[in-house]
TrEMBL record:
Swiss-Prot/TrEMBL GO biological process terms: L-leucine biosynthetic process
Domain Pyruvate carboxyltransferase residue range list: 5-266
InterPro entries linked to this entry: 2-IPM_HCS-like, AIPM/Hcit_synth_CS, Aldolase_TIM, LeuA/HCS_post-cat, PYR_CT
EC number(s) given by UniProt: 2.3.3.13
Name of this chain's protein: 2-isopropylmalate synthase
SUPFAM superfamilies attached to this UniProt entry: Aldolase
Domain of life: Bacteria
Record bears the keyword Flavoprotein: no
Family note: Belongs to the alpha-IPM synthase/homocitrate synthase family. LeuA type 1 subfamily.
MF GO annotations: 2-isopropylmalate synthase activity
Species assigned in the record: Rudanella paleaurantiibacter
PANTHER family registered for this protein in UniProt: 2-ISOPROPYLMALATE SYNTHASE 1, CHLOROPLASTIC-RELATED, HOMOCITRATE SYNTHASE-RELATED
Biological pathway: Amino-acid biosynthesis; L-leucine biosynthesis; L-leucine from 3-methyl-2-oxobutanoate: step 1/4
């Protein structure tokens, strides 16, 4: 039996914070409905205290979606929590996500506070949030750099105060996978009431390790992952939803499953990219333009003999209709022959050799040879 990993999508909150990615309420509702169709378990819809527009977005998303939990962010401040609670009043299942800095760096430099005062503030925030909703998630900001024993005390205290989920974010993308995994394990082993809450992981990608850290967190007991489509988010971004979901699907032996309809990954990726005006890099795992494109002769020959030689996923499983053989000056005869046959042209070996030479000359100049170029060549 596989264990269920809950997908908490923060595309519309942490993702939408990125400069230039802001959406109108109507656009946010469109994306939220697509995330619901994709199968995410929780949609973090926004940060209601931040602006009247964001308040309205959370309210409208709470009305528009029915299956996922709708979550609103707040700092551990009464006014923020009140705004989050009010914005969620129409949600079928609402969650307030409240929290405060947990590392000494944040406690000292951001709050000018002490560990003891932070602990008290966290407890009051969770209790106040529970007066609005039964489902309260607490985030221990910058947990990646926090003192581990303090993090355990904080986790224990907020669970006792009523938190149903505790988020251990690597806010600055600082941790290495084994280090982050060990932290999660330590929390499980040292927080006496940990089984009363779900431990959640929220990683940033400053060192390009967000997906690896998230998988390490899962391997060490976390059962909720906080992710965004295309990995958009502050600075170098958040963990990519599509990468974690497909890593768990491809590696079934790990024994985890999600509720995501993976055939919706590519269309939702494109929708988010277009609406947020944030292009997806060509070599992005799973959803990049080149994720299922083969261009060197050796790879094309191997792929045409059997797709498993160079593909670990079926493109249809992520909503891409087919793999691509891109014809360039690095392509071999096999790929050219295959493409010509798809266009209806079959040649004997000497003729194909002649066409191949002309193809290479053309490819050196044009870089990529498309079907129109090939028609020109054979004529
Ligand atoms: O990265 C972070 O710590 C956050 C929190 C607000 C959850 O985004
Ligand atoms: Zn974040």
């Amino acid at each position: 039996m596989s264990q269920r990993i809950f997908i908490f999508d923060t595309t519309l909150r942490d993702g939408e914070q990125v400069p230039g990615c802001q959406l109108t309420t109507e656009e946010k509702v469109v994306v939220a409905k697509e995330l619901e169709r994709l199968g995410v378990d929780i949609i973090e819809a926004g940060f209601p205290i931040s602006s009247p527009g964001d308040f309205r977005s959370v309210e409208e998303i709470a009305k528009a979606v029915t299956r996922p939990t709708v979550c609103a962010l707040s700092r551990a401040v009464k006014g923020d929590i009140d705004a989050a609670g009010q914005a969620l009043k129409h949600a079928r299942q609402g969650r307030i996500h409240t929290g405060i800095g947990a590392s000494d760096i944040h406690i000292r430099n951001k709050f000018g506070s002490t560990r003891e005062a932070i602990l008290e503030q966290a407890i009051s925030a969770v209790k106040h949030a529970r007066s609005y909703v039964d489902d309260v998630e607490f985030y221990a900001e910058d947990a990646g750099r926090a003192d581990l024993d303090f993090l355990c005390r904080l986790t224990e205290a907020v669970i006792s105060a009523g938190a149903t989920v505790v988020n251990i974010p690597d806010t600055t993308g600082y941790c290495l996978p084994n280090e982050y995994g060990d932290k999660i394990r330590y929390i499980y082993n040292n927080v006496p009431n940990v089984d009363k809450a779900t431990i959640s992981i929220h990683c940033h990608n400053d060192l390009g390790l967000a997906t690896a850290n998230t998988l390490a967190g899962i391997a060490n007991g976390a059962r909720q992952v906080e992710v965004t489509m295309n990995g958009i988010g502050e600075r170098a971004g958040n963990t990519s939803l599509e990468e974690v979901v497909m890593a768990l699907k491809v590696h079934k032996e790990l024994g985890f499953e999600t509720g995501i309809d993976t055939t919706r990954l590519f269309p939702v990726s494109r929708l988010v990219s277009e609406m947020m005006r944030m292009p997806v890099q060509a070599n992005k795992a799973i959803v990049g333009r080149n994720a299922f494109a083969h261009s060197s002769g050796i790879h094309q020959d191997g792929f045409l003999k059997h797709s498993e030689n160079y593909e670990i996923m079926n493109p249809l499983d992520v909503g891409v209709d087919k793999s691509l053989i891109v014809l360039t000056a690095r392509s071999g005869r096999h790929a050219l022959k295959h493409r010509l046959e798809l266009l209806g042209f079959r040649y004997d070996k000497p003729t194909l050799d002649t066409i191949y030479k002309q193809f290479l000359d053309m490819a050196d100049i044009r870089k990529e040879v498309n079907d129109k170029d090939l028609m020109e060549l054979v004529r």
